[in-house]
């Protein structure tokens, strides 16, 4: 069977859509519960703005997953390092932000490079914990690209840990998920972790 030259798969998120009006009303209630006067003219547009901001942060953009045949039989790691990332912690609804390093070891097909960042966004724009986000990106790439291996590292600072509570300002959390050769083969695994950390 011949493999198509360029293949495109439309990727749409399967999140439920945000009810912006209901979210706005809830923000008005929250302001009141927090002892703030929602009728204060300075706060007049705040419920709408907050609803819009959360909608944006919870809605990944659609994209085409573009792949090309690996005609040159490229068989070394492809790594996109320092992909900017921001997401929302599901415990406090506060942001966590940092970078993702995403790599794969090609098999039959290679991927348009920008798509690595788009896959990160696909799962980051949700209520998350960092561990699940890391695994979802790795699992999705393994499933859709069927490479020889996948590796994902996320380094992030959680506002719920910096601004409140323990106030461990500047603490960064590292998580990783690896599949295939990057998990099984010690040399590939070592290479991935060294390159991803810039060493
Ligand atoms: N494993 C994991 N924990 C997270 C993540 N984001 C936030 N948390 C933690 O989730 C925990 C929630 O614990 P709770 O004790 O219920 O919440 P809390 O009373 O606000 O905790 P403190 O932050 O310690 O004040 C906290 O320890 C957070 O730091 C994440 O991405 N992964
Ligand atoms: Zn949190």
TrEMBL record:
Gene3D superfamilies: 1.10.286.10, 3.30.1130.10. Pathway: Cofactor biosynthesis; 7,8-dihydroneopterin triphosphate biosynthesis; 7,8-dihydroneopterin triphosphate from GTP: step 1/1. SUPFAM superfamilies: Tetrahydrobiopterin biosynthesis enzymes-like (SSF55620). Its EC number is 3.5.4.16. Residues 25-196 form the GTP cyclohydrolase I domain. GO terms for biological process: one-carbon metabolic process; tetrahydrobiopterin biosynthetic process; tetrahydrofolate biosynthetic process. The keyword Electron transport does not apply. It catalyses: GTP + H2O = 7,8-dihydroneopterin 3'-triphosphate + formate + H(+). Zn(2+) binds at residues 89, 92, 160. One of its GO terms (cellular component) is cytoplasm. Keywords: GTP-binding, Hydrolase, Metal-binding, Nucleotide-binding, One-carbon metabolism, Zinc. Pfam families: GTP_cyclohydroI. GO terms for molecular function: GTP binding; GTP cyclohydrolase I activity; zinc ion binding. Homopolymer. PANTHER family: GTP CYCLOHYDROLASE 1, GTP CYCLOHYDROLASE I. Belongs to the GTP cyclohydrolase I family. This is GTP cyclohydrolase 1. It comes from Nocardioides gansuensis.
């Amino acid at each position: 069977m011949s493999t198509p030259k360029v293949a495109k798969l439309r990727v749409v998120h399967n999140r439920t859509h945000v009810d912006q009006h209901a979210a706005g009303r809830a923000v008005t209630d929250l302001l009141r519960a927090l002892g703030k006067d929602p009728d204060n003219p300075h706060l007049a547009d705040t419920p709408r703005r907050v609803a819009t901001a959360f909608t944006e942060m919870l809605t990944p953009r659609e994209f085409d997953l573009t792949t090309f045949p690996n005609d040159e039989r490229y068989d070394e790691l492809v790594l996109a390092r320092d992909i900017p990332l921001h997401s929302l912690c599901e415990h406090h609804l506060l942001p966590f932000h940092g970078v993702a390093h995403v790599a794969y070891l090609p098999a039959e097909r290679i991927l348009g490079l920008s798509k690595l960042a788009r896959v990160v966004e696909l799962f980051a724009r949700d209520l998350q914990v960092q561990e699940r986000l890391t695994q979802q990106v790795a699992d999705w790439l393994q499933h859709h690209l069927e490479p020889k291996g996948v590796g994902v590292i996320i380094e992030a600072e959680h506002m719920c840990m910096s601004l409140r509570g323990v106030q461990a300002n500047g603490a960064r959390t590292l998580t990783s998920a690896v599949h295939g050769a990057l998990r099984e083969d010690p040399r590939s695994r070592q290479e991935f972790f060294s390159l991803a950390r810039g060493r």
